[in-house]
Amino acid sequence: MSSSSRIALVTGGSRGIGRATVLALAGRGLDVIFTYRAEAAAAAEVVRLAEASGVRARAIALDTGEISAFPAFVEAVRGALEAWSASGLDVLVNNAGNSHHAPFGQVTEADFDALYRVHLKGVFFLTQALLPLIRDGGRIVNVSSGLTRFAMPGSSAYGSIKGAVEVLTRYMARELGARGIAANVVAPGAVETDFSGGMVRDNPDINRMVAQGTALGRAGLPDDIGPMIASLVGEESRWINGQRIEVSGGMAL
């Protein structure tokens, strides 16, 4: 656990894709700071598992939709870095998210705003707030969705906002390139997690529908996504920038 280790920050790291990402990064030797919203016990377990890989890990509570909380969060991250005698972050993974399903004609302004605050406004301003802590040559990964490429009824607000995240990522790549910072999007397909109330994991009909519409014949798992994100911020992927990489097993081809 050297102070020269690369350090990653992952939002929404206590479960699902975020958890798999934290553990995959730890497995590659990165120290990891991650956020969780409410599940302190789950977060503590992820810290334990990450530390079992021989790295340092810390969980910090944050609602990524509450922009007013960002200054205090940045100071907490700064404190963690100082405790580790580290000069900054090398990787930022904007993964935290909430879900929503409703026909286009029934989406309310409150529904839309709840998604917008977390998935777009939160990603925009949290990344902005963390920029002074991200070292030159760093990597940013924003998590989007297969729903920006294929349209599934009931996901108009979610898919549209994730589409905006993909545009934002290209702007990040363009404007931060002078500092050697690369920014990319990873777009998962349907994954068996707690997301959307565990819909893909726990509803056999939906799981079967996803499997039938996926070239590799099954729904995704968190461990299909986390290691791919970890590889994207590795040295072997240094020349990938401003790209959308879908990790869906070939959904809706």
Quick tags:
253 residues, alpha/beta, Rossmann fold, seven-stranded parallel beta sheet, 7 strands
Strand and helix layout:
Elements: E1 7-10, H1 16-27, E2 31-36, H2 40-51, E3 57-61, H3 70-83, E4 89-94, H4 109-130, E5 134-143, H5 156-176, E6 182-188, H6 195-202, H7 204-212, H8 222-232, E7 244-247
Described by strand count, sense and barrel closure, the largest sheet is: 7 strands, parallel
- The ordered string of helix (H) and strand (E) elements is EHEHEHEHEHEHHHE
Give the CATH level 1 class: Alpha Beta
Radius of gyration: 17 Å
Strand order of the largest sheet: 3-2-1-4-5-6-7
Q: Give the helix proportion (percent range).
A: 40-55%
- For CATH, the homologous superfamily is named as NAD(P)-binding Rossmann-like Domain
User: What is the second-level CATH architecture?
Assistant: 3-Layer(aba) Sandwich
Number of domains: 1
Beta-strand proportion: 15-25%
**Distance linking N and C termini:** 44 Å
CATH topology: Rossmann fold
Task: Extract low-pLDDT stretches.
Answer: none
What do these coordinates show?
The structure is a single chain. With 253 residues, the chain is of the alpha/beta class. The chain has helices at 16-27, 40-51, 70-83, 109-130, 156-176, 195-202, 204-212, 222-232, and strands at 7-10, 31-36, 57-61, 89-94, 134-143, 182-188, 244-247. Strands 3-2-1-4-5-6-7 form a seven-stranded parallel β-sheet, sandwiched between helices. Helix 2 links the parallel strand 2 (31-36) and strand 3.
What's a concise summary of this model?
The protein has 253 residues and is α/β, with parallel strands linked by helices.
